[in-house]
Design goal:
It is a single chain. The radius of gyration is 16 Å and the shape is elongated. The longest helix is centred in the C-terminal third of the chain and has 27 residues. It is mostly helical. The protein has one domain: Up-down Bundle (Ferritin). The protein is built from 6 helices and no strands. The chain is 70% helix and 0% strand.
Length: 161
Amino acid sequence: MAAALSGPDRPLKMEEIAGVIGGLREVEMALFSCLGRTAPALGLAGEVTWASGASLGAAWRAAQLEQLLPVSAGLLSARAASASTAVSAGLQTLDSFVPSGEPLEVPRLVSQWYAVLLDAYKHRLGLISPAADGAFERVLQRLVADLEAEHGRCEAFGSAW
């Protein structure tokens, strides 16, 4: 799924980069929504705090990506750029997630998406063109650092539950 998110193994054309950034943003927004909806139902204060903070982190990462979306006549808008069909199918699982009272489901599901996003971000970083993608590189580096820290917190909370 990370390959579907990170795009082809080469520098990307403007239309392709809009699709990749839009797809990554779509996943972050789905995490924001899922974690925000789920937080109040988790029960324990530590779980609620973790899910609320993780939700805000996903919103921050989505905002960073949205700022990179190219704006040009004929390109998809920020709202229209979306993930591939395979990723969209996975996002339906996330979007339809309703806490069942088993708190371990939340960090497991989110941790899986964090791993997919990390793979996609790191893969794209490896293909960056320094001359053309300077801003994208800086944002991806920040997103990787933030997501690695968040993934560690998610794993820690998941193992503690």
